[in-house]
Amino acid sequence: MSQNTDTAAETIVDKAVAEGGAYEIIRKRLLDQGQLLTQKVRELNDARLAEFGSSAMVARARVRVRTENNCIPRDIVQVGDYLLFGYNVFLGLKKETRLEDVFSLFVKKDTDAGVELEPVSFAGTFLADQSFVNDFDELYRYYKDTRIVELTVANGKLLAGFQIGERLDDIRVFRWSLSPDGKTVSYIDNRGERDIQLPPAFDFEWIAATREDAVHGRHPHLNILDKVFVETVGGDLTIKIENNTEDGLGIYREAVEDSTQSLDDASVFYAAVGNLILLKIRPYREEQFRYLIFNTLTQSVLRIDKIGQSCVQLPENHGVIFPGGYYLNTGEHKTFEEDNSAFRFKRMIRSPNGEDVLYVFYEPAAGLVSLLAYNIIEKKLQNPIYGNGYALADNGEIVIFSAETEPTRVHPMQIWETPYVSAEFASKAPARQNFYGRIGNNELVRGISEFYSIARVIANQAVSVRLYEELSQAARKVFDTFFWLGEGDAQPIAAVLKDISATAELVIDEFEKVESIRQQSAKAMQEAEQAQADILRSLQPENWQSAEDYVDALARLRKQRGQLATIKEYRYIDQARIEQLDQQLLEANNALSEQTVVFLADEKALTPYLGKLDDLNHQVEKAETASAISPILETIEQTASGLDLLSELMASLKVDDATLRTRIVDAISEVYAKLNQSRANAKHKQKNFGSAEAVAQFGAQFKLFSQSIAHALGLATTPEKCDEQLSKSLV
User: Fold this and answer.
1) pLDDT range class, residue 658, cuts 50, 70, 90
2) How far apart are CA 612 and CA 635, in angstroms?
3) Which has the closest alpha carbon to 57: 312, 335, 353?
4) What is the reported pLDDT for 128?
5) How many CA atoms lie within 13 A of 654 on its CB side?
6) How many Cα atoms are found within 13 Å in the side-chain-facing hemisphere of 397?
7) Element containing residue 8 per DSSP (H, E)
8) Widest pairwise Cα distance in the chain
9) Greater confidence, 167 or 696?
């Protein structure tokens, strides 16, 4: 883009700001800068990948291993160069369980045919340690129902867990110490129960909302960190972003089972995680908790019950991850359809490149694992990989298998190539002295991820003042965080970020104006929806006894459609919702019109009109002043408007029975004739009253004027007083 073009664009924006209503223009400019930032960051990331290589997780091979007996495999783990495979064998008539009935050892070999897993004899390995063999034999001798449940490596130890009772926590754990390279394995003992426990299901603390958080009023609620307000009274669970107890509406609501509960009856917990506030709510007399996520940036609420089983934070304050998906601070989220209700967080594995993180969730009963790979740059989660066990090698290869439901001797496995290599393996890579090598892959990943985050915030459609403030701060903060931003290939990104920071400051002020207009439009929409709901709720033709009831209902429907047409012109109003509401009114009007014709088919349908006109005529005869006739004329005009509606209805509605149509029109015409006669009589009498009252009024005023003149003449005793009284008389 040329310099002249940039200058012209800036002039247009500055002029728009001066004239007001500039939000759309500045927002468009910010979006263009966001797209340019995305392009420049992608170029930097491509150069990084060319330098350090890709980190994709790819299935490399599929292999099969054989066991001596039919068995159901339980778990697998990498121990140095060995793959330790554990399984449960149903021995039938055999009296003793041998090591070979529970364990197998394999090594990976690259052959011309591909990757193979070759079996290895126990002789000379850590499984041949006599102390371990004795403890193993003793375990199976005294506990007949013993079965292996888990193999894992944690904190420099190899752990083998065996369930010896009916409960999952009835376990015995064998443990070995591992050297840093995993080559040396030394048996310790069979008392490693504490080493195999799962970490907490949540890496944050749920805080209970108490009475001190209660805000009382017409619509009471609980104040959560002065950012979000929660209540379950009045028949629904409501989330509000304003501390307003006069209004029961909010940004999110859903029904509760018990509508009579008070503010103190529900159990409410919360946790602040970055820009997110997690809510754990159990309304009164309900068994299950409801889990919701409130995003302080986008001011939105999403219910995700899957976070209730286990939930941990993503790195770099990106958001949270749970067995069924993830939710980011920007509002992006993804959930998987698979049933993973029993999974819990087990461990997190970071890749040395800093770009990828592997989250392992575990289901203890069946021994299932779910591997979720999260990419820090793309801020995306790959589809979960499920299996009964996995083994991670130093070079990043993962062997994973899925057990069959029936015992078998052949067990298929997959080998995946992943970026989750060990730190020792990564340290063997040659050092680089160019721009990328001096910064390092980890640092580049952090920076690129942050730059992409800024671009995503700009592209976010759920904008708010808080979001723009965060954008402005983030665009400035990156210069302090990443010293290399103004160097080498990162210089174009620095220039774009400076422009974004300046534009974000402009857009904040303009957005506040737009937000005020949006709130007015939202209020108008809310009032229209409430009014329409009341109108549609009042349409009960089965209970109506007179034609006026139908006429009044048709008039309300017409008035509501006019109101919708008016607010449709408001800026930022939901046009699609207006169309839906108008369609509802149109359908209700058509249905009511047909029901009105059915009612008018009765010969006595318009009799109440005639009775009402007789009563009005009687009131006109009794009236003694013009002012007394005015409300009568107003009632007559209202009745005429109702008849106009009926006339329009008969003109627009198709009635197949011509005789019926003629009878209804004649009946309306008869009422019209009497109404016109009543109107004429009332106006004539009002006119007569008006003439007489005008003459009387003139006489009274003239008499008052004569008396005032006589009084003035009596006071005009001097020239000065004469002038004074003359002035008063003229006024």
Assistant:
1) low
2) 10
3) 353
4) 93
5) 1
6) 20
7) helix 3-19
8) 146
9) 167
pLDDT of residue 686: 65
Six-digit token pair at 397? 């290869």
Per-residue pLDDT band for 181 (boundaries 50, 70, 90) equals confident
What does the angle CA 307 – CA 297 – CA 274 come to, to the nearest 5 degrees?
50
| Residue scoring higher pLDDT (194 or 10) | 194
Residue 285: which region, alpha, beta or left (left: phi > 0; alpha: psi -120 to 50)? left
Distance from the Cα of residue 173 to its chain's centroid: 44
**Average of pLDDT values for 341-350?**
91
Name the residue with higher pLDDT: 13 or 594.
594
Closest by CA position to 73, among listed 422, 406, 566, 418: 406
CA gap 692, 688 in Å, rounded: 6
Token duo for residue 563: 């109101």
Alpha helices in 539-625 (DSSP H): 547-567, 575-600, 607-622
DSSP 700: H
Residue 52's nearest CA partner among 341, 441, 370, 610 is 441
**CA distances for 594 relative to 559, 580, 654, 672, angstroms:** 19, 22, 9, 22
With a CB cutoff of 8 Å and minimum separation 6, the contacts of 731 are: none
Report the alpha-carbon distance of residue 507 to residue 486 in Å, rounded. Answer: 25
Helix (H, G, I), strand (E, B) or coil at 170: coil
Q: What is the pLDDT of residues 394-443, one digit of tens each?
A: 889 999 999 888 899 999 999 999 999 988 888 887 777 788 888 888 88
What are the C-alpha distances in Å from 419 to residues 236, 382, 393, 455? 47, 14, 11, 26
Q: Which two tokens stand for residue 574?
A: 């939901």
User: For the segment 503-546, what is each residue's pLDDT rounded down to a tens digit?
Assistant: 888 887 777 777 777 778 888 888 888 888 888 888 887 777 77
Q: Cβ(293)–Cβ(276) under 8 Å?
A: yes
The predicted structure's pLDDT at residue 3: 47
Residues 601-610 have pLDDT tens digits of 666 666 666 6
What are 217-235's pLDDT values in tens digits? 888 999 999 999 999 998 9
- Helices 441-459 and 23-52: angle between axes, nearest 10 degrees: 160
Select from 409, 351, 329 the least CA-distant residue to 100: 409
In three-state secondary structure terms, 494 is helix
Give residue 8's pLDDT.
Answer: 44
Beta bridge partners of 280: 269, 291
- Identify the bridge partners of residue 78 per DSSP, sorted by sequence position: 83
Range with the lowest mean pLDDT among 66-80, 407-421, 471-485? 471-485
Of 615, 601, 619, nearest in space to 547 by CA: 601
Q: How far apart are CA 289 and CA 311, in angstroms?
A: 15
- Which amino acid is residue 623, in one-letter code? A
Structural tokens at position 270: 């919360």
Query: By C-alpha distance, which of 305, 291, 298 is closest to 275?
Result: 298
d(CA 600, CA 288) in angstroms, rounded, equals: 55
With contact defined as beta carbons under 8 Å apart, do 186 and 80 qualify?
Answer: no
Measured between alpha carbons, how far is 112 from 426 in angstroms, rounded to an integer?
27
In the sheet that 147-154 helps form, which strands lie side by side, from edge to edge? 147-154, 157-163, 171-178, 185-189
Give CB contacts under 8 A, 24+ apart, made by 506-510: 506/13, 506/17, 506/26, 507/23, 507/26, 507/27, 507/30, 507/468, 508/465, 508/468, 508/469, 508/472, 510/17, 510/22, 510/23, 510/26
Contact between 498 and 477 under an 8 Å Cβ cutoff? The reply is: no
